[in-house]
From TrEMBL:
Top-level taxon of origin: Bacteria
Coiled coil, from the record: none
Lineage: Bacteria, Pseudomonadati, Pseudomonadota, Alphaproteobacteria, Rhodobacterales
Key words of the record: Hydrolase, Metal-binding
Gene Ontology molecular-function annotations: acetylpyruvate hydrolase activity; metal ion binding
Protein name, UniProt field: FAA hydrolase family protein
Domain Fumarylacetoacetase-like C-terminal residues, every copy: 28-226
Pfam families per UniProt: FAA_hydrolase
Amino acid sequence: MAAFALTPPAQAHLDITGMEDKFPVRRIYCIGKNYVAHIIEMNADERDPPVIFMKPTDAIVKNGGEIPYPIFTTNFHYECELVVALKSGGYNIPVSEASSHIYGYAIGLDMTRRDHQAEALAKGLPWEVTKSFDHSAPVGPITPVSTCGILTSGHVRLKVNGVVKQDADISLMIWKVDEIISKLSEQHRLMPGDIIMTGTPAGVGAVVTGDVLDCSMDGVEPMQVRIGGKAA
């Protein structure tokens, strides 16, 4: 059997609450424009369907980690949101069957180079420069469905240095979790190990070096991360 020419990268994974086993991450799907209040604060059209984009798995930052302030931005924003982890998948999953594919939930941050997002939106450019950079996907430990049940309501909250900046119930999502899974499966074959960042509520804002971000979701293990110095 042929060997790899280079050392393969480590398998991306997340911790699981109450278990030694790790959750292997295959893909990170992200949903944009999924809360009306956030759409309004971004001056977008609330009638548009949510945007689907991806982040690389090596962008994950785990609970207690540090996010280096990224290069190529002077307007670095947080977006706190519910993350759904899948245990199974497929194509064209009916909405009525979607919840059976959920392994568990976590809280996460869709970190964003906001200054470049405006340009990308205006010119119809891809979102990678604004969404898919290094350390752009902090995600906390997964709480299994066996512990928390299927979540259809509960508050997503973000505090920056102890001050609440985001607080909204996931029941206010335009596209609910089951609908998101179903819609994604129309375009992609969902697989075990996929995680989905389900969109952020209103209250997004900029962070600077030294800021501490506390993220929580009712029934789910919380996450804390810190903004570090400029990335080298």
